[in-house]
Each structure stands twice: as C-alpha cells, then as structure tokens.
Structure to design on (251 residues):
C-alpha cells in the first residue's frame, strides 16, 4: 500500500506540475485584447472600403470619354494598381497619398489574382490648382514592374520608371509616350482627366490590411503570384470588373 500511495502522490505531483506549466505557457502566449480586436475591425472595414472604392474608380475609367487611351492600353497588360483616392494633406507635413490595390494577370493562363493592398505617398502629385483629391490607375507594363512591387517599398522614377498616360488618343498615343516604361499613370480629378504625375512617389505594401483581409500574415507574392490565399468573396465585383475591362479570365 505504501508503494501505491507513493506512486499516487508522484502522479498527482506530475499532474500539478503539468497544470502549472500549462498555466505559465498560456500566460506567455499573446492574447488578443479588446483594443486589438477593435483595431482589426477597423482595418477590415478600411480594406472593404478600399475595395468598394476601387470598383467605382475602375468603372469611372471605363466610362470616361477622355480615357479611351487607357481602355485600349490596359488590354493584355501584366497588372494594374488602382488608387481610388489620392489626397492632399493625407499624411503629416503636407505629404499626399492614398491606399489602393494591386491585381496581376497570370501570363500563362490569363487569370487575374486576388487584390493585394498598397499605399502611395509623395511630397506632391502635381495636382491641379484647387484639386484636393484624384483617383489613379497605374498600368504595369513590365515584369520588372510586377517584381518591384513584391518588395516592401519602391520609389517611382528611381527603382522603376514611370510615365503619365495621355488624354484620349487610343493605344497609339499611349504607346508612343510610354515605350520602355514600367508604369504608366492615368488619373482623374473633379470628374475629368487630370494627367497627374507621380514621379518620386513611394509605394509600399499594407501588410496589416493584407493580413486581416486574408485571415493570416501573407506576402504580396502569396496573393498575386503563388496565389495560395483563400479568395475573399468581398472582392468578386472588383475582380470581375477588371476581367471585363482588361480582358483575361476569372479566378
């Protein structure tokens, strides 16, 4: 009986130690606080808003009579960056900027990727006098342009080349002004063609929005190249709009 009692006491001590170790482990594990949950909710809403605004911007560009060159140019391109709102004074010290999404076309299948979130900032976008906001779509023309966006930050005009897309003119006008350029920018402000230059602007990933939108920490390459993220149903309308306007296939 003494041996059994000792074994029983030993087993109880092991259980107690296991419970203590589990408690210590749980204390050491990061816990989601109410503030963190609230922040995630705000980010989810921000991501949704960007997607919805991107749909509106794409539709605006498809209907604008001054942007026939854009509609011809975007057919068959490797990718597009859509920035629904470029704001004056959106960042401290008067820096201008905004958020947007990248979609990439698979060169073999022609299918378009899910959107990856980015932000752009610049000391000046050359907005016209009195214009406080504009919307822009960057047409990506080269593989280098796509690859550059897979890093954390790039600077237009330094890391990659960029040009301003022409007003109207069809594909001939667009091509003549942008031969060899990685990015060509088309922009609208106050409902009309703006011809905004973003030379010197910095583009960086929004890892926080990509994480909440796809449910885990993902890199831009996971979204637009490897495509191992779960499709978010909230981007279906944007995805189909890009397919309809730029050609290619759905998911």
């Amino acid at each position: 009986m003494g041996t059994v009692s000792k074994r029983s006491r030993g087993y109880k001590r092991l259980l107690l130690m296991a419970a203590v170790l589990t408690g210590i482990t749980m204390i050491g594990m990061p816990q989601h606080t109410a503030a963190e949950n609230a922040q995630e909710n705000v980010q989810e809403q921000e991501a949704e808003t960007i997607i919805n605004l991107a749909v509106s911007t794409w539709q605006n560009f498809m209907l604008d009579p001054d942007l026939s060159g854009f509609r011809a140019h975007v057919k068959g391109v490797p990718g597009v960056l859509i920035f629904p709102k470029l704001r004056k004074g959106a960042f401290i010290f008067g820096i201008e900027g905004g958020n947007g999404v990248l979609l990439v076309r698979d060169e073999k299948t022609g299918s378009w990727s899910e959107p990856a979130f980015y932000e752009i900032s610049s000391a000046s976008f050359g907005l016209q006098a009195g214009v406080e906001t504009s919307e822009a779509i960057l047409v990506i023309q080269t593989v280098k342009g796509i690859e550059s966006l897979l890093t954390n930050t790039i600077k237009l005009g330094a890391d990659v080349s960029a040009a301003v897309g022409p007003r109207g003119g069809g594909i001939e006008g667009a091509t003549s002004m942008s031969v060899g350029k990685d990015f060509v920018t088309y922009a609208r402000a106050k409902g009309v063609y703006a011809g905004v230059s973003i030379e010197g602007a910095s583009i960086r990933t929004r890892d926080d929005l990509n994480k909440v939108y796809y449910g885990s920490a993902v890199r831009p390459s996971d979204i637009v190249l490897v495509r191992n993220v779960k499709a978010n149903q909230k981007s279906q309308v944007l995805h189909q709009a890009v397919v309809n306007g730029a050609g290619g296939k759905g998911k």
Q: What stands out?
A: The radius of gyration is 24 Å.
